Amino acid sequence: MSTVKLDHSLMQELDLLKQEGRAKPPERIIDHYIPPKEEYGPRYTLVGNDHEFIRLNSNSYLSLSHHPELMAAADKATHEFGVGPGAVRFIDGTFTYHAGLERRVAAFVGKPSAKIFNSAYTANCGLALSLSHKKTHWIGDQLNHNSIIRAMRISNIPRANKGIFKHNDMTDLKRCLEEVRPDMERVIVIFDGIFSMRGDYAPIDKINALCQDYDSKFKDGVITVVDDSHGIGAYGDTGRGTSDFCGASPDIIIGTFGKAFGVNGGFIAGSPTLIESVRQTADTYIYTNPLSVADCAAAIKAIDICDSDTGLSLLKNLKERTLQFRQGLERLGKESIPGPHPVVPVLVRDTQKTHELVAYLFDQGILVVGLTFPVVPRGDETIRCQINACHTAADIAYVIDCLNNFE
Questions:
Q1: Closest of 51, 56, 34 to residue 43, by C-alpha
Q2: I need a surface site. Which of 41, 77, 112, 160 has the fewest CB within 10 A?
Q3: Which residue from 107, 110, 147 is spatially nearest to 127, judged by alpha carbons?
Q4: 235: domain CATH number?
Q5: Distance between CA atoms of residues 147 and 162, nearest Å
């Protein structure tokens, strides 16, 4: 037996991905981190390349992954309990750091209870498995993240029990709510807080108000869920995410420690009963080892920092550098999607020019993400830039200058 025949078929499938423009490029390997010096933020080097790069494609919005307090916390926890849990949560794989992180993140997002997962992706899937039965109806935003789309697919409910509304369109959300069959018992409206390819946000206050109008029509009500992975820690006056920015909180919050907090893992926050249901029924929680104690300890410290004067200072610089970048794009006449979030798209609207701009910026020592068809529709080709708190005024000025010099 061998995989020769299978490999042949897989190669044909991989070739098709390339032809369709959906194949991923080879993964670059970072081999060195160069700390900030003088007026510039940190730089990175790649295997096989002599450049020092500024990362304008990182989700680490508060730049905490190299913070000495996080590394010290992870080191202490590791020396105390080891590098791995040795079992799933139900079989004595729960340590004080797991429980401590759940209490800390629940308090931070303003919910009474929380449960941590290995990622926000597995949190979304776990929630869908926990909440879905034959009388459940799911409604999602048209531009939801793949993890939400996948969660709705694996929920094992009929297609008739699902609705999609146009992006941030309350009139279309109302249409979806009107179309829910009267025999449904439970309606779940789920959406991203920050839409990661665009940097715009869901109007949670408006969504909550609209869903409230339909809540009494169903036995278990209309439940609102946000995946605020790109918002938590990086958005709002206190860094508590899209709920903070909108002044309204959904019923359930899903988030990650792997972006603004600079660590790893995800979570679901909500009522104690909801969280106990997740603990009892979410396959992506039950049947896999939890985060390491090092991840948990570092995440606790990250939330503590975010919730302090130091965190507010980082958030202030993040906002200022984001504004500097957006104003620079405006001066250059570059098209973007307005908003205060540090995800800043540069709309190029041409596939070849997008590829050329990504390559040009790479040659200038700047790492960005280019999005072309079929990832985005033809005419919406984009460079996604992500501002981090470690970026300095000189860094942003350099990027703007490079964009100005691109022909």
A1: 34
A2: 160
A3: 147
A4: 3.40.640.10
A5: 16
